[in-house]
Amino acid sequence: MALYEHIFLARQDVSQQQVEELTASLTEILTANGGKVTKNEYWGLKGLSYRIRKNRKAHYSLMNIDAPSAAVVEMERQMRINEDILRFMTVRVDELEEGPSAMLQKRDRDDDRSDRPGGRPDRGGFGRGDRDSRPPRRF
Questions:
Q1: Which of 46, 63, 70, 111 is 20 to 30 A from 102 via CA?
Q2: Please, are residues 13 and 86 in contact by the beta-carbon 8 Å criterion?
Q3: DSSP state, 100?
């Protein structure tokens, strides 16, 4: 069987629970056709670069798939029918990544940065709220 990474975007109007139900139904389609899903990741509601069917945001979800091509074709056919799915992309890969994807690692790194004082952890100097403690400017 071949290995695939599959990402789909769901409409902003649906809830996170409905996106998880969509993922579960897609997993059922794959297992019924002889495949399996090795990893599911919900990346959250994110802004789009441009409008897609009048939506400015979308729920992003990643699936790592180990399935025959016929199962993936059937899953994609079902996704084209579903009105809640805006876009999807399936890419065949040589091997699947273990552990969290780059998007989840980025989210964890961003969460760590927001805990630091000063607001801008990547730069030294003065952060938010420190304007009074700055040295006077010389012209």
A1: 70
A2: no
A3: S
Tell me the percentage of the chain whose pLDDT exceeds 70.
80
What is the tens place of the pLDDT at every residue in 72-111?
Answer: 999 999 999 999 999 999 999 988 878 777 787 776 666 6
**In sequence order, which residues have a C-beta less than 8 Å from that of residue 22 and are 6 or more positions away?**
8, 10, 14, 61, 82, 84, 85
Residue that is written with structure tokens 């809640």 in the block:
84
Phi first, then psi, for residue 119 (nearest 5°) are: 85, -35
The answer to whether residues 25 and 63 touch, using CB atoms and an 8 Å cutoff, is: no
* DSSP letter (8 states) at residue 96: P
User: CA–CA separation, 138 vs 136, rounded Å?
Assistant: 7
- The CB density around residue 51, as the number of other CB atoms within 10 Å, is 9
| Residue stretches of the chain with pLDDT short of 50 | none
Backbone angles phi, psi at 4, to 5 degrees: -135, 150
Query: CA 69, CA 31: separation in Å to the nearest integer?
Result: 13
Q: Please give the single-letter amino acid code of residue 73.
A: V
| Cα dihedral across residues 91, 5, 25, 52: positive or negative | negative
